[in-house]
Design goal:
Layout (H helix, E strand, L loop, with lengths): L1 H11 L8 H10 L6 H4 L2 H4 L1 H8 L6 E5 L7 H8 L4 E6 L7 H16 L1 H4 L2 E5 L14 E7 L2 H9 L4 H12 E12 L10 H4 L4 H10 L3 E6 L29 H7 L4 E7 L7
Parallel strand pairs: 1-2, 1-4, 2-3, 4-5
Antiparallel strand pairs: 5-7, 6-7
């Protein structure tokens, strides 16, 4: 009887689900010694495990990361797909116009060269609209990811450019039918008049959705994993007032550190299964 009761008690204990293999692979990359302490400190704001799990990243995927900048997410993506998949990083042009792009590109190449065991198989491509648009071979990618880039392309488009339209076209062309597009960016409240993405860094999620759908994508899910209700969206230097930029220097520094990084939308789209590769 005692054995029966013990067995019954064990059956009634709550069961903790085992982490899936993709989640384990992402967490292992996040915990990797190749990541700097500075980058690790931002995990609490950028939520890489939850974000990449939401998008559905798997180690066997061919992934394209748009404008990876200095490589914050590359440090996680590269080891996840190293053994079974492939990573394309669609960087700025070799000679970009913006000073920050020159700095990031230089830092990115230095990072790749400093740890070949991690980054040996990373393929660097270029997204430089309207001139260079092939971010990966057509119809080759299972997933395209862009983190806090869309506001730049939207801002350019508002100034009579075409960057946003061309970005969605390039991402659509690179994906296989059924492939995933993941977007995060600084969120502007939907109940306010439109922000100026170029000067504030913010944009509405509805604008991102409209442009993606116009390019042929279908919205399949939203996540609030990168939301920040402390962000009031009303700063003198736009989103760059907040960390990590802290554009105002020491002025109200502790206030902005307490707010943390920006409020962000996180959207998951799919290229329809019946689409032409």
């Amino acid at each position: 009887m005692r054995l029966l009761l013990t067995a019954l008690a064990l059956c009634l204990l709550p069961v903790t689900p085992m982490a899936s293999e993709p989640v384990k692979a992402i967490q292992t990359a996040i915990d990797g010694e190749h990541r700097s302490e500075e980058n690790r400190a931002r995990d609490k704001f950028r939520h890489p495990l939850e974000t990449l799990e939401f998008f559905g990243l798997r180690p066997d995927m061919t992934v394209v990361e748009m404008w990876p900048g200095g490589g914050w997410y590359t440090q996680i993506l590269a080891p996840v797909v190293a053994a079974e998949g492939r990573l394309y990083t669609a960087q700025y042009s070799v000679n970009p116009r913006a000073g920050y792009q020159r700095r990031y590109y230089g830092a990115f190449l230095t990072m790749l060269g400093s740890n070949p065991d991690v980054y040996r198989d990373v393929t660097v491509t270029t997204f430089y609209p309207p001139y260079q648009l092939e971010i990966a071979p057509r119809g080759s990618a299972d997933m395209v990811l862009t983190f806090r880039n869309l506001h730049n392309w939207i801002g350019d488009q508002r100034k009579d450019g075409v960057s946003a339209t061309l970005a969605f076209r390039a991402m659509y062309d690179a994906l296989k039918p059924g492939g995933i597009l993941g977007i995060t960016d600084h969120r502007w409240p939907e109940d306010q008049s439109d922000a100026d993405p170029y000067n504030t860094g913010y944009m509405k999620a509805s604008e991102a959705i409209a442009m993606a759908e116009a390019a042929g994508f279908k919205l399949v899910a939203r996540s609030e994993v990168n939301a920040n209700p402390r962000d009031t969206h009303d700063y003198a230097e736009g989103v760059w007032t907040l960390p990590p930029s802290l554009a105002l220097g020491e002025t109200d520094r502790e206030k902005y550190l307490a707010i943390g990084e920006s409020d962000r939308f996180t959207l998951k789209f799919v290229k329809p299964a019946g689409a032409t590769p």
